[in-house]
Design goal:
single chain, alpha+beta, Molybdenum Cofactor Biosythetic Enzyme, Chain A, Molybdopterin biosynthesis moeA protein, domain 3, 4 domains, 6-stranded mixed sheet, 17% helix, elongated
Length: 410
């Protein structure tokens, strides 16, 4: 877009959010792969599919404590008429395979131990007793029972995990089981976060006069980590700090988020910086809140202009910046929230042509809209159970209409 300086004049036109989403979805993704030690891969995204290089287990193993036997030799055994078999030797986990089992004999065996050649079943401990060197069989066991075959967990060449999978704790156990120590994962997106505003204090510090602590930095840091990124919080800047331009132009990151200094005030300099150092693609969206959101390219790297008001920052990140972060990291770009289909507790009015981010509480199974009270009131998101997106082609919804509620809690 041609740079339109909106400072002290306002936006003459606002881009459709769908245009920005289309641009994001057209970007190359995901990022290149990197090798990660197995113990650091929980939650990471697999860059390549994994096949089993081995059979697991590589031997027939016992699923029970008891005795290795030939199943057919136990047929007919009962409490009233038990059978007797000589008990020879023992097979224990982690020890070399025992000698073959001779016909008409049994061998004591532990769970996970190798089943001797010649045996085809394991008689559970509760189905027999040892009297000296003799096994007294009180219940028959069928051939094949309680014996885990070679490759029961995974056979050599089996497809274990597909590319693009976000690794679960049990996946790490399986990878370890087949002898994997290094895993090819999609590289985490490096995201620089610049927080601007002369009124902003360090996060967590007490409010001081007309100055307020930074809310956007901690919130964006947590959102980025949730989406699998590596945040680089670059500190606080006044709106006119020349370091803002230096950071945008040269920071070592895959994309940059700048909060504040993106609206129509006289010191909202970031849109002009992006236009001068690269290309300002969008500035001013048909979105409430977060209408001052923008997006550009500097040195080929995306730069998101995130409004300074915290609710707007949350909205702009989740719908737009977060979508790109998730794509770059190999995750689904869609909103990472559980969705519940619920009826509205009261009607909602929206402006045609604008996407609305409506915070709601779930009360008695219905979605109750919260009074907005402005994009700077962060408690509207902490009191809310989730949000509803009212699309640009709708003028609202009547009471009782079924809507998709994106729930903040997992």
């Amino acid at each position: 877009m041609t740079f339109d300086d909106v400072r002290m004049r306002g936006f003459r036109a606002r881009a459709d959010v769908r245009e920005v989403v289309a641009w994001i979805d057209a970007r190359p993704a995901p990022l290149p792969a990197e090798d990660v030690h197995l113990l650091g891969t929980s939650g990471r995204v697999l860059a390549r599919a994994i096949e089993s290089p081995v059979d697991v287990p590589a031997f027939r193993r016992s699923a029970m404590d008891g005795w290795a036997v030939r199943g057919a030799e136990t047929f007919g055994a009962s409490e009233l008429e038990p059978l007797s078999l000589p008990c020879v030797g023992e097979s224990r986990p982690g020890e070399p395979p025992p000698p073959p089992l001779a016909p008409g004999t049994a061998m004591r065996i532990r769970t996970g131990a190798p089943v001797p050649e010649g045996a085809d079943a394991v008689l559970p401990a509760e189905s027999g007793t040892e009297e000296g060197s003799t096994l007294v069989v009180r219940e028959p066991v069928a051939p094949g029972r309680h014996v885990g075959p070679v490759g029961e967990d995974a056979a050599r060449g089996d497809a274990l995990l597909p590319a693009g999978r976000r690794l679960r704790p049990q996946d790490l156990g399986l990878l370890s089981l087949v002898g994997t120590t290094r895993v090819s994962c999609v590289r985490k997106p490096r995201v620089a976060v610049l927080v601007t505003g002369a009124e902003i204090l360090e996060a967590g510090s007490p409010p001081l006069g007309t100055r307020i602590p930074d809310a956007n930095g901690p919130m964006l840091d947590a959102l980025l980590r949730r989406d699998g990124a590596a945040p680089l919080v670059r500190g606080l800047f006044t709106d006119t700090d020349p370091r803002i331009e230096e950071e945008i132009a040269s920071v070592a990151a895959d994309l940059v988020l700048v909060t504040g200094a993106s609206s129509v005030g006289p010191e909202d300099c970031v849109p002009e910086i992006v236009a001068r150092r690269g290309t300002l693609l969008f500035h001013g969206l048909a979105l409430r809140p977060a209408s001052p959101t923008g997006l550009g390219l500097v040195a080929g790297r995306p730069v998101f202009l995130i409004p300074g008001n915290p609710v707007s920052a949350l909205c702009a990140y989740d719908l737009l910046a977060g979508r790109l972060v998730r794509r770059l990291g190999g995750r689904s770009p869609e909103l990472p929230y559980r969705v519940a289909r619920l009826p509205l507790a009261r009607k909602v009015v929206s402006e045609l042509g604008r996407l609305d981010y409506l915070r709601v509480q779930v009360v008695d199974g219905r979605a109750a809209p919260l009074t907005s009270r402005g994009a700077g009131v962060l408690t509207t998101t902490t009191r809310a159970d989730g949000f509803v997106l009212v699309p640009a082609d709708a003028e609202g919804y009547p009471e009782g209409a079924s809507v998709d509620v994106h729930l903040y809690d997992a």
